[in-house]
Amino acid sequence: MKQFARIATLLLPVLLLTLPAIAQEPTSERPIITPEQYDVSIRVQRALNSPANDFAPTLHGNRRSIYFTSDRDGNQNIYSSSQGSGNWEQAREAGPALNTSRDEGGASITPDGRWMVFTGCERDDGLGDCDIYIAEFVGGDWRNVANLGPNVNTRFWESQPSISSDGLKLYFVSDRPGGRGGTDIWMSTRAHGGNWQPAVNLGRVVNSIGDDLAPHIAPDNATLYFSSDTHPGIGGLDIYRSKRTGDGWTSPQHLGTPINSGYDDYFSGTQLNSEDLYFASTRDGGKLNIYVAIPNPLPPGAVTTVIGNVTDARSGEALEATLAVRDIQSDEILSSFYSNAENGEYVVVLQPGRSYVITSSSPGYLFYSDRFDVPADSENDIVHKDIGMTRDIVRLLVYFDFDKATLQPASRIDLTRAVDWIKANPTVKVELAGHTDNVGAKDYNRRLSRERAQAVLEYLVSQGVSPQRLSAQGYGMDEPIASNETEDGRAMNRRVELRIISR
Length: 503
What we know:
Elements (H helix, E strand, L loop, with lengths): L12 H6 L22 E4 L9 E6 L5 E6 L6 E6 L9 E2 L10 E6 L5 E7 L8 E9 L2 E7 L10 E6 L5 E6 L9 E6 L10 E2 L10 E6 L5 E6 L9 E8 L2 E2 L3 E2 L10 E6 L6 E5 L7 E6 L9 E9 L9 E6 L5 E6 L6 E6 L3 E8 L6 E7 L6 E4 L2 E3 L3 E4 L15 H13 L4 E7 L6 H21 L7 E5 L12 H7 L1 E8 L1
Parallel strand pairs: 22-28, 22-29, 31-32
Antiparallel strand pairs: 1-21, 2-3, 3-4, 4-5, 6-7, 7-8, 8-9, 10-11, 11-12, 12-13, 14-15, 15-16, 16-17, 16-18, 19-20, 20-21, 22-25, 23-24, 23-26, 26-27, 30-33, 31-33
């Protein structure tokens, strides 16, 4: 059976892993380069490493947990560690749903920690000797393990998966026919809510006539790190970076020294909003160890990460919620993320150059939406946003022309959610409650708030909601939820709420 970790040849994989530390001689086909030397600090991760092979690090979006592969107990299994006061704690096996008496490894996890793709070998439902599987984190454990099926897996060898931050692209390695060399990097895509489509080869820019492996797609969904023993390099497997440009890829860039060495350097992984680059190398003692490079000399593009907790607004109890990310122009769902049922934590990754609406929904609760504008030239950013879910009242994300009751087109996103929710709860009756800040005369503000609430009502009716289930009221400046002394507070007070008045 072909082991997971080292697949530069089809023969003697275990022997290759147990050789003493000897710098790898480049193949005759490989151009030798004088690498860039970057000012990078390399730190061995002693808390994660063992006398055996430890490799394929993948970091959870919240930066407080890491998964990696090790053969410290005889088989290759998935391990995890949590970060204590700045240090990684003792690693433990990732659980029986993932690990069996055979080989598993190469975990890749969506930023919210909900989905993991990994390699499982010689399983009863396998299509080849090693296949790619998916698992779901539910109820505090990994469950619902499933083979990704024939659009991804074949009777040949599939391994080393990496899933994009939006969960819509899967990169992996295979030695199936149709490649350019020993092992190639392939990609399968899916639409939101759809199935994985037949995998395609990344092509001759990324894949060489030798072994190209260990892909890692960064959180920007455009920067691919991988390793190769044939692209111009300095010895053994070296780490490279390539970027997606339309349907193609830029020429791979060598990550230089000291990340690359004369030994095997591969299985790289980035962190959200971090300059760290984790990777594995045989440079110390011949076994694969996990290292971190600070800073990454060729970093990925910037993203905006929205983090927080989803809770019951009254009790503070953590809630498991779905957070759907929509484009504000098209109302298209771009991705979905999930909060953790145990603590309510969530992580959402937004790409630059778009405006988004993130809508949180949880059974038994009203939905809740917020808008996020991410400029095209934005830098890495973390936005903290806690979400309190309610059962009887919610602020609608609606926009009006200045000093008027005319709904702007961007209002349609949340109003569509309101229509869907009301139709899904056919016995509910709803009041639309309009509110203003304290600028202007009291009577005028009351009338304007009433007209805006009525505009929302009329839109809901136009979308098929029975008018008998709706009413509109204007409260003017009488019920502020924030101080009117600041512009931010006044903006919060200018709102239309959806209130449940009977069930």
